[in-house]
Write a structure and sequence with these properties.
Blueprint: H1 2-22, H2 29-48, H3 56-59, H4 61-71, H5 77-86, H6 92-101, H7 114-124
Helix pairs in contact: 1-4, 2-4, 5-7, 6-7
GO molecular function, one term: GTPase binding
Pfam families: DIL
Protein name: MYO5B protein
């Protein structure tokens, strides 16, 4: 059950983040607030179902950071440093794309300046990020089956002749 929810939450993360990276109309402060609220509801649900150890919440980390990126101030070099230290699960390309797509919804917000984006790129240039922008939502985690040793010893197993396993010999 834990592995199923980890996979499901990864798919939610990948699809939501990819939509954020492809749609200019959703890159705003209010979307960041809405995303963060919805993610906290998912985290509470996991906690209520005793699934916090499943790793499902960790798969949402890139989406959480993207939501926080939408909510942060984006003006000074201190803001740039905060973004660089906060967004460790996002690639440089994803951070820059979100900043480029950021669209102010009301008159209190401002567009992100080109100088600010270049500052971010300069600070993140030493990262060895993969060149991909979008997440692979078809990625599947390996299924892990717990090992439960049997109480039956190999010496006590009797192989019936009807199975035609004459090539097997007891040693």
């Amino acid at each position: 059950i834990q592995q199923v929810f980890k996979q499901l939450f990864y798919m939610i993360n990948a699809i939501a983040l990819n939509n954020l990276l492809l749609r200019k109309d959703v890159c705003s402060w209010s979307t960041g607030m809405q995303l963060r609220f919805n993610i906290s509801q998912l985290e509470e649900w996991l906690h209520g179902k005793n699934l916090q150890q499943s790793g499902a919440a960790q798969t949402l980390e890139p989406l959480i950071q993207a939501a926080q990126l939408l909510q942060l101030k984006k003006k000074t070099s201190e803001d740039a440093e905060a973004i660089c230290s906060l967004c460790t699960s996002l690639t440089t390309q994803q951070i820059v794309k979100i900043l480029n797509l950021y669209t102010p919804v009301n008159e209190f917000e401002e567009r992100v300046t080109v100088a600010f984006i270049r500052n971010i790129q300069k600070q993140l240039q030493e990262r060895n990020d993969p060149p991909q922008l979008l997440l692979d939502f078809k990625h599947t985690f390996p299924v892990l089956f717990p090992f439960n040793p049997s109480a039956i010893t190999m010496d006590s197993i009797h192989l019936p002749a009807s199975l035609n396993l004459d090539f097997l010999k007891k040693v």
